[in-house]
TrEMBL record:
Biological process, per Gene Ontology: chromosome segregation
Name of this protein: N-alpha-acetyltransferase 60
CDD domains: NAT_SF
UniProt catalytic activity: L-lysyl-[protein] + acetyl-CoA = N(6)-acetyl-L-lysyl-[protein] + CoA + H(+); N-terminal L-methionyl-[transmembrane protein] + acetyl-CoA = N-terminal N(alpha)-acetyl-L-methionyl-[transmembrane protein] + CoA + H(+)
Sorted UniProt keywords: Acyltransferase, Chromatin regulator, Chromosome partition, Transferase
Length: 265
């Protein structure tokens, strides 16, 4: 078993990942619970509530080969520094119409304290800039391919966009989780960098990809817009300098009207 602290969340791995074994994927989305969606599910999105605690713990256990501490789930259901959305199917019978079948959990992180601070363009007059970090995302197996995960990510992006000081949404994906990589690329997330040996599980290191989605005009310090702006500013400065030199030369010439005659003789 290994432990890792990711943005303030302590997680413990209970199953070593293996590139040839899907059940070992750190960020997989496969559930061991046989829950099937009705032919016409009534999908509703809502904020996660305290009464979701037990179901939230069970789904995390079913979806991920890692163990989250109870404090993490308490923070989620009570909204302690974590903002989370749940998904329910109102058409489910047997009193399960308000039981979670999917979720996404997020946390707001100060931009300057994040691991991607060097990838952001800062406004010195706005020192309170923040980021939204996606902690976990999951959907019960029987409710996949219905666009639920896409809608959850869209809600996170909308939420981040409503925070004036937020510059981006970001997350980690273990390097060999190709379905997740394709999903975030489809959602227009940018694969910003590959983090070497980000995970250490059962005596083996695994890389992670960091995905980034800019909001509210957030951009990389090396964005095309900034390059164009920098070049334009340089050209303007150069032209002003040349104009100033020409003006000084003209003034000197006017102060010495007999220079030409002296040179001619």
């Amino acid at each position: 078993m290994c432990h890792r602290l990711v943005n303030g969340i302590k997680i413990s791995c209970i199953c070593a990942p293996n590139t040839s074994n899907l059940c070992g994927r750190l960020m997989r989305e496969h559930s061991m619970v046989d829950i099937k969606a009705p032919l016409c599910p009534n999908i509703v999105y809502r904020r996660i509530q305290p009464y979701d605690f037990e179901v939230l713990v069970r789904i995390h256990h079913d979806l991920f080969p890692i163990t989250y501490e109870s404090e993490f789930f308490r923070n989620v259901v009570y909204g302690r520094d974590i903002v989370a959305w749940g998904v329910v199917d109102r058409s489910r019978l047997g009193g399960h119409g308000d039981e979670l079948i999917g979720f996404v959990t997020t946390r707001i992180i100060p931009a300057r304290e994040s691991e991607i601070g060097d990838m952001l363009s800062y406004d010195s007059s706005r020192t309170e800039q923040v980021l939204v970090y996606i902690l976990t995302l999951g959907v019960e197996e029987g409710y996949r391919n219905l666009g639920i995960a896409t809608s959850l990510i869209q809600k996170v992006i909308e939420y981040a966009s409503c925070i004036p000081t937020c510059q981006a949404v970001y997350l980690h994906v273990i390097a060999y989780n190709e379905p997740a990589i394709r999903f975030y690329q489809k959602m227009s997330f940018m694969c910003a960098r590959r983090l070497q040996n980000f995970y250490y599980i059962q005596g083996q290191h695994y890389d992670s990809y960091l995905f980034l989605y800019y909001v509210n005009g957030g951009q990389s310090p090396c964005s095309p817009l900034e390059i164009v702006t920098t070049v334009a500013a340089y050209v303007r400065s150069l032209l002003k300098s040349l104009a100033a030199r020409l003006w000084k030369n003209e003034e000197r010439y006017q102060e010495c009207p007999n220079v030409k005659k002296a040179v001619a003789f």
